[in-house]
């Protein structure tokens, strides 16, 4: 986990938060390891259940991560239900692997102490500023991720225990210096080649393709001449943004809105909290008695910060005199929140019970709560009113669109009249090549659905995102089928012509190879010191050159014909740098470690009793 945080620590706190959010999948499902549940199980591993809710959360996090990584491409991929099912199954398999590691760690008696967790947090660069631990940064990252310090430490304990086990099993992997150097020298090799390209194009003029040959190819390869299923659509689209553009707001309306909602334009009040915590433990009464005893010490004049260091069971905040973070109202546990926002600066509360334990809460400082003037927020209010009016109209029209398109399911005319929208149309298109104006995965999925295609009905209202919706119906539908021979004949003839020309080029290249091996002198193009990734030569020639032994020769198929390739010499790598050797060694080590990890998981799975819930 901390390695993943560290990867994002190179920059501002926002960058760290972004990386953590993307990688928060690593923490998902931890609740299933810390407690039991009566909800349905997605899988059972050696008698322990992985709840469906944990799988769903992990699945949604993984989808969000992939969407951020792939952008619009993910929306296209996500239109395929099989693709989403494969993602979900992959997530479940990773959760099963984690469960197996946790069970093995418990069986082996592996433990991570509070002190180890604290030390890991203190030393983590993502939580540091200028090389020193920064509590504000630490708490800000956790707050952005929606974690409390206790739950974060619980997740760290699980993750560090797993890593303790995995490291013990696979940390013995290593790469010899000679291995890294050998790979570097191999990659750095260059080769002296000679080659002769036999282009296929000159042979095309002498090639004839008969109608019978073309017809035979057509009949032997029907899958190559499938015309995809096509539809043309009628559709209505409704957009909140376009509605907002038509909304007019006066200064009087804006001022009235400001007067009515003045509290919205206050700087949010924040309070800096500290606490002394006694965990609930197995004996709640004893925990409460301990908290009351600490409270009595405070009443007797003891220093809050010193008591936090000596008596608080939140050891991390205790080291800081109990200090937690700046909180806005409504962020913390309700009981904690009520106590904190009922204090004056410098005051501490009586004992407060939450799900985490018994707290004594102190208000260290407060800030914010200032009222912004109308002029300062005027533009913001104009935008808010426009957005509100547009959304109100959008939701009203959306309901009309849904009702009318359902009540009159075989036409969009009535729905268009009810909403004031224009019925638009498309030409024929396939699922893979939709027009730009309707290129939305959800819309395309609906257009090719049974309801729309087979029943001929209006679709349901389709959510296109960002307060955009649509309804579609089929105007014309063409089933997939084989294209007639006459339509594809010209293409078949061109292809067969190319194939015959290639065969002729291949035959000539093989004749040249035979002559070369027989000792005849050929006019070959020489190229010295060809690198493995040479961009000046055709990749086919380069690849063949790196497959041959010195003095060897062979032919190779190219996009434009065939080539004869001869290898004259292998040149050793020049000046292999230590940095390259180290980088390649690290890459090899990572590969070995990954293989070892997969081996560990496969071994654990082979010995485990794993059952999957029926879909």
UniProtKB/TrEMBL annotation:
Q: Name one Pfam family in it.
A: SurA_N_3
Asked whether the keyword Isomerase is assigned, the reply is yes
Look up and give the membrane topology term: Single-pass type II membrane protein
Alphabetical keyword list? Cell inner membrane, Cell membrane, Chaperone, Isomerase, Membrane, Rotamase, Transmembrane, Transmembrane helix
Q: Which domain of life is it from?
A: Bacteria
Signal peptide segment: none
Q: What are the residue boundaries of the PpiC domain, all occurrences included?
A: 268-365
Where found? Cell inner membrane
So where does this one cross the membrane? 12-34
Q: Which family does it belong to?
A: Belongs to the PpiD chaperone family.
Protein name per Swiss-Prot or TrEMBL: Periplasmic chaperone PpiD
What organism does the record attribute this protein to? Shewanella litorisediminis
What lineage is this protein's organism placed in?
Bacteria, Pseudomonadati, Pseudomonadota, Gammaproteobacteria, Alteromonadales
């Amino acid at each position: 986990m901390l390695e993943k945080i560290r990867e994002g620590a190179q920059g501002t706190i926002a960058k760290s938060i972004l990386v953590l959010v993307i990688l928060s999948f690593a923490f998902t499902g931890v609740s299933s390891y810390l407690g039991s549940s009566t909800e349905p199980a997605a899988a059972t591993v050696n008698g322990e259940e992985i709840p469906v809710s944990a799988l769903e959360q992990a699945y949604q996090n993984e989808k969000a991560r992939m969407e951020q990584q792939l952008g619009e491409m993910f929306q296209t991929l996500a239109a395929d239900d099989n693709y989403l099912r494969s993602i979900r199954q992959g997530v479940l398999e990773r959760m099963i692997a984690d469960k197996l590691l946790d069970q093995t760690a418990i069986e082996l008696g592996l433990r991570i102490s509070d002190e180890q967790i604290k030390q890991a947090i203190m030393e983590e660069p993502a939580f540091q500023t200028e090389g020193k631990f920064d509590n504000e940064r630490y708490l800000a990252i956790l707050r952005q991720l929606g974690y409390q310090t206790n739950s974060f430490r619980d997740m760290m304990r699980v993750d560090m225990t797993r890593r303790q086990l995995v490291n013990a099993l696979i940390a013995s992997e290593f790469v010899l210096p000679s291995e890294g150097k050998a790979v570097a020298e191999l990659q750095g090799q260059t080769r002296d080649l000679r080659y002769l390209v036999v282009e296929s194009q000159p042979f095309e003029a002498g090639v004839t393709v008969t109608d019978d040959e073309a017809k035979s190819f057509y009949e032997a390869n029907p899958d190559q001449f499938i015309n995809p299923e096509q539809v043309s659509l009628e559709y209505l689209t409704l957009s909140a943004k376009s509605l907002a553009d038509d909304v007019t707001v006066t200064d009087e309306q804006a001022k009235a809105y400001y007067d009515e909602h003045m509290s919205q334009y206050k700087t949010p009040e924040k309070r800096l909290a500290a606490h002394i915590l006694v965990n609930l433990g197995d004996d709640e009464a004893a925990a409460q008695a301990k908290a009351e005893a600490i409270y009595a010490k405070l009443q007797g004049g003891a220093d809050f910060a010193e008591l936090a260091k000596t008596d608080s069971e939140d050891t991390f905040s205790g080291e800081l005199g109990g200090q937690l973070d700046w909180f806005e109202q409504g962020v913390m546990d309700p009981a904690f929140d009520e106590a904190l926002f009922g204090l004056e600066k410098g005051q501490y509360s009586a004992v407060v019970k939450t799900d985490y334990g018994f707290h004594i809460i102190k208000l260290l400082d407060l800030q914010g709560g200032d009222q912004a003037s109308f002029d300062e927020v005027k533009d913001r209010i104009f935008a808010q009113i426009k957005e509100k009016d547009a959304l109100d109209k959008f939701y009203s029209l959306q309901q009309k669109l849904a009702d009318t398109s359902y009540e009159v399911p075989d036409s969009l005319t009535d729905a268009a009249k009810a909403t004031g929208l224009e019925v638009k149309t498309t030409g024929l298109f396939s699922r893979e090549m939709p027009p730009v104006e309707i290129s939305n995965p959800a819309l395309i999925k609906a257009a090719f659905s049974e309801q729309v295609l087979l029943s001929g009905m209006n679709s349901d209202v389709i959510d296109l995102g960002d307060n955009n919706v649509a309804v579609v119906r089929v105007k014309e539908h063409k089933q997939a089928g084989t294209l007639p021979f006459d339509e594809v004949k010209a293409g078949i003839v061109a292809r067969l012509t190319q194939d015959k020309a290639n065969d002729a080029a291949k035959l000539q290249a093989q004749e040249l190879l035979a002559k070369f091996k027989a000792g005849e002198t050929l006019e070959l193009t020489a190229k010295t010191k060809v690198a493995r990734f040479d961009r000046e030569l055709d990749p086919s020639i380069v690849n063949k050159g790196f497959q041959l032994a010195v003095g060897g020769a062979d032919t190779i198929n190219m996009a434009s014909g065939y080539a004869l390739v001869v290898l004259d010499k292998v040149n050793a790598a020049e000046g292999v740098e230590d940095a390259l050797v180290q980088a390649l060694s690290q890459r090899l080590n990572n590969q070995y470690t990954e293989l070892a990890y997969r081996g560990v998981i496969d071994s654990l799975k082979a010995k485990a009793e794993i059952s999957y819930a029926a879909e």
